[in-house]
Amino acid sequence: MKERRRQEGITLVALVITVIVLIILAGVTLSTLVGDNGIITKAQEAKQNMANAVAEEDKLIQNLLNEIKGIEAGGGEIEVPEGTIEFGEVTWNNGQAEVEILANTIGETLQYQVNGIAEENWREIESGEKVTGLHHGDEVHARLWNGSIASVSKSTTIKDEKKPEVKVTVGEVTSNSIAVTVEVTEEESGLVETETYQYYLGEALAGKSTSNSYKYEGLEQETEYNLVVKVQDKAGNEGTGNATATTDKAYPTIESTLSEGKYVWYTDADGTQQKCIVLYGPENSNYSSYGIQIITAGIVTDSFTLGVSGNFNASRDAYNSAITTLNAEAEKYRKKDDGIAEIARCVGSVPDNPNYDGAGMHTTQFGGSYSGTLKDTDNNYTADWNQMQSIVINGQGIHNIGKYYWLASRFVNASSSFSYFCVRSVYTSGSLYYRSLCYVSSDGRSYGSSYSYGLRPVFHLKSGIKVTGGDGSEGNPYTLAP
After folding, report:
1. Domains 84-157 and 165-246 share a fold
2. Which whole-number Å values give the CA distances from 29 to 16, 46, 417, 455, in the listed order?
3. Is 3.40.50 the CATH number for 84-157?
4. CATH superfamily, domain at 165-246
5. Any long-range contacts for 208-212 (C-beta under 8 Å, 24+ apart)?
6. What digits encode the pLDDT tens for the residues 314-352?
7. What CA–CA distance (Å, rounded) separates 33 from 162?
8. What residue segments make up the domains of the chain, in order of their start?
9. What gap in Å lies between CA 154 and CA 142, rounded to an integer?
10. Is the entire prediction scored with pTM above 0.85?
11. Is the dihedral of CA 264, 268, 271, 274 positive or negative?
């Protein structure tokens, strides 16, 4: 029993000793890591020493550079300027830019130059002043200078980052074409000079041009199109504009539709719809010089007056100027801005030269003071008169409308004792007639007369006019549109 107790005592002592040894070993280990001479402490000291060495080296290098610069500037004490430089907002006008330079100079000089850096190109500028005349891609450099050295510097690059503004306006539209004009607002770098405008139909390129006017052609009738125009500036910014338009219906033209004797509506300058008849059509042998001409089916007025009753001189003047007067009166009925007729004349004038007046002066067959003051007979009326008789509607020529009306042509009825000076006209029965405005006789008598007859204009149509309705009959005349 005593032996057993003795063994247990020995075991307990051994355990105590082991614990004491472990504690001693742990203390040694902690001291090695974190003590004054521990591994961690020594590592921190090494890091700080390295940072101090780098800072000292940087200081030595900077001092060396300052000494070198001082030598280049002529020696003396080196003072490095301290301050700030900032560039303001870039503004554009008519393709050129300007930028403001702001600086806290602290007594130093603010300098700048554009594109490249050369010592001789630096220019002085005050803080808040602007550098002007700049373009896209230019580099502006600025520095603070104390006469010896510059250590504060800054640069900026001028950039056009704004897209051109593009507006597309639709012009003339036909059944197979649409015309557009383009207006571009570009105040920065300016537009490219070749293939400036790119014209698209939707996403398909239709054409390129340096012109801001373009006509899309070969289109389908009655079809809506999206017209897109792209424009690029010199900085590569692309602006886009678009418009939509629908092509017209494809109508036949007067050249392919009208023929002599067919009826046509024409709205005159007063807004009155005049029923007209094709007097000269595409089938006429003189078409190349006459074009297509239509004559009113009736008269537009029944009271146009020539001459002054009882006044020989006034009637003589009216007689002499009768052709131009009658044509000028007919022209008043032409609507100037409708795009339909390009000239109006009085029937009886020369079809392709209405104001022709080559008859010369009349020479009396007896003595007197009137010789050479009155114009002679002309044959202006012949072409129209013959053509009107040849176009027969309802059994009679279109010259016969049951009304008096003037012809722009003169006739002299002379004998050995008198001379009547007349303007030709058409009688109510459709026969050729004339009215005397002036009378002179061999015994010296003279007088003037006046007459009021109807006016029957002839309208010369422009080429390519569209026929938009009607069948050309008297009850359903053709309607026209430009």
Report:
1. yes
2. 21, 21, 162, 134
3. no
4. Immunoglobulins (2.60.40.10)
5. 212/181, 212/182, 212/183, 212/184
6. 999 999 999 999 999 999 999 998 899 999 999 999 999
7. 65
8. 84-157, 165-246, 254-481
9. 5
10. no
11. negative
